[in-house]
Amino acid sequence: MVVYVDLVFFSNLAVDGVVLLATAKARRLHPARWRIALSASVGAAYAAILFWAEVPYLYSLGAKLAVSMLMLLIAFGYGGPIAFLRTFGMFYVLNFVTLGGVLGAGSLLQAGGSPMHDFTITPDGGIVLDWRMQLGLFAVAFALSVWLFYGVAESRRKQAETRSLIWTAKIRIGEETLEVPALLDTGNRLYDPLTRTPVMIVEAALVQHHLPPKWRERLLNEPAEVLVSELDDESRERFPWLSRLRLVPYRGAGGKPRFMLAIKPDSATFVREDHQALQADRLLVGLDGGELSAEGAYRAILHPELISNGIPVPNPYQPV
């Protein structure tokens, strides 16, 4: 039996790269391309070394798991134990899917018999595929590549659509200006029912240093009116923004009436590079205790009336 180590290396490089990219897509990760290339090279080198180096225990279960972990650390980093375990599990699920696809494709390509006869396990634990299984391997890799291509194209299309709705909101409160990326949500119809003032929503984490301790965390689980009821004169002196607080009623999940904690700003300007800058003086800024975007693409949600009724002002992104 003749084994061409260079072919082993490049075939494993291609397949490992595709599986790593598929893992990134499934876990919604965005690693740099050089990290994927370096990680796939480590996996391909590990597979190729098998055929010219005899190192005891190098191909044991523990060694294989260690190499897999090293590849994932190179490609995606650590990110915490839970995130790493999820990535590790997804990586092996996709590897098993790929192997199953190879066996299935090999079974289709052969005239009869079991595809298990079309590969050989070496004494050191390596796998040598015959030409039909190699065709199956590349067929599966090609299918994964097509899936990745269309998945990435669709993801980029959605990102482009989202970017077209992203504005930079510059909110002036007293002597401070808060600048935050904001998503224009045409479905947002939140008003202060008494004054009909439109309400935009901002992550409370951006202003938590102007609020009493733990308020951001408590907003996730406690009604806003409970927090307001705890205020005293000392708190109002320490946190001047508390004099701007409002409670905006709205209906939560299931139609249950709730209150949102909001701040009355002095004004806000909304800017987009390809659009006229707009200013609004009549608005409230509602505070959300969580994250509005899991990817961090935006940290505020705009009320459509703030754009439709905004006053045009000079855009700093456009030349005068």
Structure description:
- The protein is of the alpha+beta class and 320 residues long.
- The protein has 2 domains: 157 residues; 150 residues, no CATH class.
- The protein is 43% helix and 22% strand.
- The chain is built from 9 helices and 13 strands.
- Strands 3, 4, 5, 6, 7, 8, 9, 10, 11, 12 and 13 form an 11-stranded mixed β-sheet that branches. The chain has a two-stranded antiparallel ribbon with strand order 1-2.
- Helix 1 packs across helix 2, helix 1 crosses helix 4 and helix 3 packs across helix 4.
- It is elongated.
Radius of gyration: 28 Å
Which ranges are low-confidence, i.e. pLDDT below 50, for 5 or more consecutive residues?
Answer: 111-119
Strand content: 15-25%
The structure class reads alpha+beta
**Helix share bin:** 40-55%
What is the averaged pLDDT score?
A: 78
Approximate shape: elongated
Number of helical elements: 9
Helix and strand topology:
Elements: H1 5-26, H2 33-49, H3 61-76, H4 81-109, E1 119-121, E2 127-129, H5 131-163, E3 166-173, E4 176-184, E5 191-192, E6 197-203, H6 215-219, H7 224-229, H8 233-238, E7 245-251, E8 257-263, E9 267-272, E10 275-280, E11 284-288, E12 300-302, H9 304-308, E13 311-313
Parallel strand pairs: 4-12, 6-11
Antiparallel strand pairs: 1-2, 3-4, 3-9, 5-6, 6-12, 7-8, 8-11, 9-10, 10-13
Helix pairs in contact: 1-2, 1-4, 1-5, 2-3, 3-4, 4-5
